[in-house]
């Protein structure tokens, strides 16, 4: 059963890769180029998964997570943060903001599929 | 990953990264100059962060590794944990070059190249080793994890192997199906904003193809419009009009998709300038104006290298070292201005510096040394022409050869490249104050507005960009309007003398015969000079699609291409500059120098008339007398054969340009004994010098013994009563000269 995910990243390469991979797995994928765009969109609709980069212009992934958790609609939406930073402090920030999990960038398609499958299975 | 996706991702990565690196350089240069934008470090960091993430995902590990090294340094800098010094900036730029290099290699060869970056990575790490450790990317074992797992298991354990435990976010997602329809509507309204810049990337070849198709459509449209004009079906005509409008709009839109702001090319100049200045120990500030000016992408591509070369030249040869500048009383920091603006359907690009300028004399000396021009040619050159010598192949004014702007190969290449795309380049310089190079280029190459003219039965298209104005001269005024100075024909256009080029003559066409009822002059602009192109007829302006000429015809410099006209026939597009060259208006040839000298003389005469002091006179001899005729009333100088003179009643006439013109033998009229011996009946008919004078209503031919010169003199006439036809005498060139009164002479003859 296909779900709907949104990929939030300022790098179109990443967005494209994520969309392609998840669409291949039968999911629908929306795209947003930064937190602000994603928030605008997500205020209006629900999704089954948010995959967001952390470092983005205008609004970063941490702030997006915080804002989404403040919305009734997204109290429980799984939010996966992409991070290249091995910095534990960043992960902690994500956790405090209410993110569901993290995925280390760079990742292979298989890893993405695995984590998404896990989330959807929960 | 599927092949096509992989290659798509790669090309996206390359484009995104190269754009990012240019922006990165900007930020770093800003910061180096002491910019205080708090976002600069953050922006630089994000760019690298993105490159690292994206390239890692696609599997370019070397890029990722190198990117990571810089990212760590940028993290430290962004957080203000370190104050950057010159070494940091230099290494960051070196670093962005390395990444750029890898991206280019990926683009061209599909791999990251074999350059060894370990030293660079080590250098970068060394810069901040005191502050942080040297983390390596991907040093985490697990690639993902869930925070709620971590809450229950020791940190570091989570990951794929982690048990799935219940947690706050475990709840299955709200399907929100009941709101789905409204949600979709809302999301659609937001959709245009959705992608990063609501822009898509399209393969250039796709757009080129589109452009070609639109070109064909324009041609077909032209044909339809032409045939519809002749029909009397209003409904059909209205439809044609709509097609006409829509095609124009479509064409405009497609052209717009090919447009790029010139700033895209300029973006790399700050970096080039910085590196050059470091290398040469100079200080230069760069100002850019009009970077949003848009140009066709093919043109942008074509001007990239020439512009880079000009800028390198300006810094290497133009702008002095800070010490030299101070000595010259200038600011230590040199100024380089880039300016772009639209003007008359063309884009002008100016590159000016406030450096040492170009010494025209020295350019000339070099050119003479190299045998490019003779000293004799040089002596007749104007300042501007001397400067233009710099565009000749094999001329360099640099005292020493530097590796910055090379061995003086270049300015000729610059000119060739710019002319190739239908542009032209001009140089202005004031020694000691700086130099300006002005490039004029067409907006687009594909479809251009053009004026269609007829000459000898064939049609030709003239690009409207070089068109200044049209002049129609009625048949009976041609003789009066066209003046002859030596062997050059000129037309006096509002006080300026316009050299005339006959298209039929230049193209060696056979005249169609019916000419002379009217003369059409098309005033054209080529390299800052104007000239009048004489044609048989002017048809219309039309949008034409430029089709390149086959390579067999590439050598024909008078044609810029060909096009298909509304009736399906082919017309050649004239290359205005090539034409001017061919007519020797722009070349350095003898003929040009002569005609130019003549023009200058004539220009002085025009000037003198305005001033009322100086006068240009034609000096001729009759017997032992020296006579002068004001140049302003002379239409032509001719040589006629004596047997052409016929008698009509008591007066002598000749047939001149299809009309009968009275001829006056000055010697007879003035009662002076001619120096010429009377012709023996058996001799060949003698050639007579005939001065055609234009009077208000008619022309009068005046026969003199010989024509000496055209002089410009400030004369004082001593009125001499008693001799009809002579106004008086004056001293011209230290000799007594009689000034003719042409009007009176004509009355005497009648």
Helix content of chain A: 40-55%
Q: Widest sheet of chain B: strand order?
A: 11-15-16-14-13-12
Largest sheet of chain B: 6 strands, mixed
Low-pLDDT residue intervals, each spanning 5 or more residues of chain B:
133-140, 151-197, 398-409, 587-597, 602-613
Beta-strand percentage of chain A? 15-25%
Fraction of residues in H or I helices of chain B: 40-55%
The CATH C-level name of the largest domain in chain B is Alpha Beta
| Gyration radius from CA atoms of chain B, angstroms | 37 Å
The chain pair forming the largest interface, with residue counts per chain, is: A-B, 58 and 60 residues
Quaternary class: heterodimer
Annotated CATH topology of the largest domain in chain B: Heat Shock Protein 90
Number of strands of chain B: 31
Low-pLDDT runs of 5+ residues of chain A are none
Mean pLDDT reading of chain A:
85
CATH topology of chain A: Rossmann fold
Coarse morphology of chain B: elongated
CA-CA gap between termini of chain A: 14 Å
CATH architecture of chain A: 3-Layer(aba) Sandwich
Which structural class matches the secondary elements of chain A?
alpha/beta
Structural class, from helix and strand content of chain B? alpha+beta
């Amino acid at each position: 059963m296909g779900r709907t995910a949104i990929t939030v990243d300022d790098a179109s390469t990443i967005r494209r890769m994520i969309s392609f991979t998840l669409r291949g797995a039968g999911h629908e994928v929306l795209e947003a180029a930064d937190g602000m765009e994603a928030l605008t969109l997500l205020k209006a609709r629900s999704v089954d998964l948010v995959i967001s980069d952390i470092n983005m212009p205008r609004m970063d992934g941490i702030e997006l997570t915080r804002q989404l958790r403040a919305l009734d609609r997204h109290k429980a939406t799984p939010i996966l943060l992409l991070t290249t930073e091995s910095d534990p402090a960043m992960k902690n920030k994500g956790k405090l903001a209410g993110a569901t999990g993290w995925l280390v960038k760079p990742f292979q398609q298989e890893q993405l599929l695995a984590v998404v499958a896990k989330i959807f299975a929960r | 990953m599927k092949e096509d996706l992989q290659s798509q991702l790669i090309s996206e990565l390359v484009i995104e990264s190269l754009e990012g690196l240019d922006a990165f350089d900007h930020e770093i240069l800003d910061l180096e100059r002491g910019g205080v934008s708090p976002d600069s470090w953050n922006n630089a960091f994000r760019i690298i962060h993105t490159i690292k993430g994206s390239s890692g995902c696609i599997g370019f590990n070397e890029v990722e590794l190198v990117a990571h090294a810089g990212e760590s340094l940028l993290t430290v800098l962004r957080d203000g944990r370190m104050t950057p010094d010159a070494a940091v900036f230099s290494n960051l730029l070196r670093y962005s070059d390395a990444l750029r290099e890898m991206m280019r290699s990926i683009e061209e060869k599909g791999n990251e190249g074999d350059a060894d970056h370990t030293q660079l990575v080590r250098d970068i790490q060394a810069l901040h080793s005191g502050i942080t450790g040297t983390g390596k990317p991907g040093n985490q074992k697990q690639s993902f994890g869930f925070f709620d797992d971590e809450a229950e298991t020791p940190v570091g354990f989570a990951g794929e192997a982690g048990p799935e435990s219940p947690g706050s976010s475990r709840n299955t997602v709200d399907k929100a199906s009941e709101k789905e329809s409204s949600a979709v509507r809302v999301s659609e309204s937001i959709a245009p904003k959705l992608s990063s810049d609501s822009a898509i990337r399209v393969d250039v070849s796709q757009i080129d193809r589109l452009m070609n198709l639109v070109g064909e459509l324009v041609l077909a449209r032209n044909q339809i419009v032409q045939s519809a004009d002749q029909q009397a079906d209003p409904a059909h005509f209205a439809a044609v009009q709509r097609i006409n409008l829509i095609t124009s709009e479509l064409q405009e839109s497609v052209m717009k998709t090919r447009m790029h702001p010139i700033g895209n090319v300029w973006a790399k100049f700050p970096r080039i300038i910085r590196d050059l200045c470091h290398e040469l120990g100079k200080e230069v500030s760069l100002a850019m104006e009009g970077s949003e000016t848009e140009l066709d992408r093919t043109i942008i591509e074509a001007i990239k290298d020439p512009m880079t070369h000009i800028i390198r030249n300006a810094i290497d040869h133009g702008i002095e070292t800070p010490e030299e500048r101070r000595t010259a009383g200038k600011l230590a920091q040199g100024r380089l201005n880039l300016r772009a603006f639209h003007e008359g359907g063309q884009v002008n690009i100016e590159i000016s510096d406030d450096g040492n300028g170009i010494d025209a004399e020295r350019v000339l000396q070099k050119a003479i040394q190299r045998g490019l021009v003779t000293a004799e040619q040089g002596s007749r050159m104007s300042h501007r022409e001397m400067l233009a010598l710099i565009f000749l192949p094999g001329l360099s004014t640099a005292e020493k050869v530097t590796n910055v702007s090379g061995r003086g190969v270049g300015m000729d290449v610059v000119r060739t490249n710019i002319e190739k795309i239908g542009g032209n380049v001009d140089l202005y310089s004031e020694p000691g104050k700086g130099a300006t190079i002005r490039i004029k280029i067409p907006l687009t190459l594909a479809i251009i507005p053009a004026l269609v003219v007829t000459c000898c039965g064939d049609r030709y298209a003239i690009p409207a960009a070089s068109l200044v104005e049209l002049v129609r001269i009625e048949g009976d005024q041609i003789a009066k309007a066209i003046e002859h100075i030596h062997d050059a024909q000129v037309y006096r256009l509002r006080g300026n003398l316009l050299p005339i080029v006959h298209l039929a003559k230049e193209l060696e066409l056979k005249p169609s015969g019916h000419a002379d009822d009217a003369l059409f002059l098309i005033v054209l602009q080529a390299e800052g000079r104007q000239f009048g192109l004489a044609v048989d007829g002017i048809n219309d302006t039309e949008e034409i699609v430029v089709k390149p000429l086959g390579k067999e015809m590439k050598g024909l410099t008078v044609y810029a291409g060909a096009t298909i006209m509304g009736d399906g026939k082919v017309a050649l597009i004239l290359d205005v500059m090539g034409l001017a060259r061919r007519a020797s208006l722009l070349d350095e040839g003898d003929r040009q120098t002569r005609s130019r000298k003549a023009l200058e003389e004539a220009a002085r005469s025009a000037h003198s008339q305005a001033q009322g002091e100086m006068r240009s006179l034609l000096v001729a001899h009759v017997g032992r007398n020296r006579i002068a005729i004001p140049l302003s009333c002379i239409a032509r100088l001719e040589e006629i054969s004596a047997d052409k003179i016929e008698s009509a009643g008591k007066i002598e006439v000749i047939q001149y340009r299809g009309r009968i013109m009275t001829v006056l033998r000055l010697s007879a009229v003035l009662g002076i004994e001619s120096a010429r011996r009377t012709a023996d009946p058996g001799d060949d008919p003698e050639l007579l010098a005939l001065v055609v004078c234009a009077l208000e209503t008619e022309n009068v031919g005046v026969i003199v013994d010989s024509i000496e010169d055209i002089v410009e003199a400030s004369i004082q006439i001593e009125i001499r009563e008693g001799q009809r036809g002579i106004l008086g005498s004056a001293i011209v060139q230290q000799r007594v000269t009689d000034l003719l009164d042409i009007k009176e002479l004509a009355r005497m003859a009648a």
